[in-house]
């Protein structure tokens, strides 16, 4: 799924488009806990992964850069600071912002075929 | 450093100073390490594991210590990441290694960290993980990742 398609589905605003062009989102993870974003990072899927979060500090972008997450959607109407946006621009991580709640954003994306980036495994 | 390591020559070395409490720049050194490893063509999954371990370690220095030094040594067959900090040290390493155990402040948690996942996550991404600490002095982490595969 392209960034413009995500924007449309999430009724979002594209607040940083650097890196948006070649991004193909197929997986997503939703968390306000960056420790968990790192802890549940998977080898193959990250570059096609969107992070859905309500946290807007710079460490969110850093975390995505470190884990190789491709794009971020901020939910609950949260807007990142200009420093966060600037860092995302440098890291080529496109940013979306929506008023939808995290649960709603997840539901919409799940229904539209986006898969869990680190699915539960019973084994 | 064991005998074998001191004998083989590092292909690349980098060192970074980390300032305790500097939440604004936290993670910069880990990103630089990530970019360097990318430039020299290290496998992307290895880079991801090293970057995650480095970032968790860097955040720990920023959150808990006065200052620290992070060093990366790239060898033909492995990468060593060493983080030395001057800080309070860890009294009970066994507790600190338990997922979920944390002494983080509210400020750290608000940033999305301090959930007690740092050390266990570093260990998970490492092939070998060594932690030594002296209360009132500081903590030293040695993380080794092999370049010929392994780890889950």
Q: How would you explain this protein's 3D organization?
A:
The complex is a heterodimer of chains A (123) and B (152). By secondary structure, chain A is an alpha/beta fold. Chain A has one domain: Udp-n-acetylmuramoylalanyl-d-glutamate--2,6- Diaminopimelate Ligase, Chain: A, domain 1. Chain A contains five helices and six strands. Chain A has helices at residues 3-9, 34-39, 58-67, 82-90, 102-111; strands at residues 13-16, 27-30, 49-53, 71-74, 95-97, 115-116. In chain A, strand 2, helix 2 (34-39) and strand 3 (49-53) form a beta-alpha-beta unit. The model of chain A has no long low-confidence stretch (mean pLDDT 93). Chain B is α+β, with helices and mostly antiparallel strands and 152 residues long. Chain B contains six helices and five strands. Chain B has helices at residues 3-7, 28-39, 44-64, 93-96, 106-110, 118-125; strands at 12-19, 67-74, 78-86, 128-134, 138-146. In chain B, helix 2 runs antiparallel to helix 3 (44-64). At the A-B interface, helix 2 and helix 3 of A face helix 2, helix 3 and helix 6 of B.
- In CATH terms, what is the architecture of chain A? 3-Layer(aba) Sandwich
- SSE run of chain A: HEEHEHEHEHE
- The total count of strands of chain A amounts to 6
Distance between the termini of chain B: 25 Å
Instruction: Tell how many strands the DSSP assignment of chain B holds.
Output: 5
Q: Taking Cα atoms only, what radius of gyration of chain A do you get, to the nearest Å? A: 13 Å
> Any low-confidence stretches of chain B, pLDDT <50, length ≥5?
none
Strand content of chain A: 15-25%
- List the domain count of chain B as a whole number: 1
The first-level CATH class name of chain A: Alpha Beta
Give the overall average pLDDT of chain A. Answer: 93
The CATH class assignment of chain B is: Alpha Beta
Distance between the termini of chain A: 30 Å
């Amino acid at each position: 799924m392209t960034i413009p398609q995500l924007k449309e589905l999430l009724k979002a605003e594209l607040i940083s488009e650097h890196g948006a062009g070649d991004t193909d989102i197929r997986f997503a993870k939703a968390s306000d806990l960056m420790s968990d974003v790192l802890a549940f990072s998977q080898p193959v899927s990250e570059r096609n992964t969107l992070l859905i979060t309500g946290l807007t500090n710079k460490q969110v972008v850093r975390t995505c850069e470190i884990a190789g997450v491709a794009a971020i959607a901020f939910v609950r109407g949260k807007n990142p600071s200009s420093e966060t946006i600037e860092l995302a621009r440098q890291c080529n991580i496109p940013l979306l912002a929506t008023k939808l709640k995290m649960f709603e954003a997840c539901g919409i994306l799940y229904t539209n075929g986006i898969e869990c980036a680190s699915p539960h495994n019973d084994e | 450093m064991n005998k074998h390591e001191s004998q083989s020559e590092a292909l690349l070395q980098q060192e970074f100073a980390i300032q305790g409490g500097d939440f604004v720049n936290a993670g910069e050194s880990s990103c630089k390490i990530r970019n360097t490893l990318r430039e020299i063509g290290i496998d992307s999954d290895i880079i991801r594991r090293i970057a995650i371990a480095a970032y968790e370690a860097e955040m720990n220095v920023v959150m808990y210590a006065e200052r620290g030094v992070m060093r990366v040594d790239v060898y033909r067959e492995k990468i060593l990441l060493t983080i030395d900090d001057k800080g309070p040290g860890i009294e009970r390493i066994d507790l600190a290694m338990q997922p979920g155990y944390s002494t983080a402040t509210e400020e750290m948690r608000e940033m999305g960290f301090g959930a007690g996942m740092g050390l266990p996550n570093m260990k998970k991404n490492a092939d070998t993980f060594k932690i030594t600490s002296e209360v009132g002095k500081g903590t030293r982490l040695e993380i080794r990742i092999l370049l010929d595969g392994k780890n889950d």
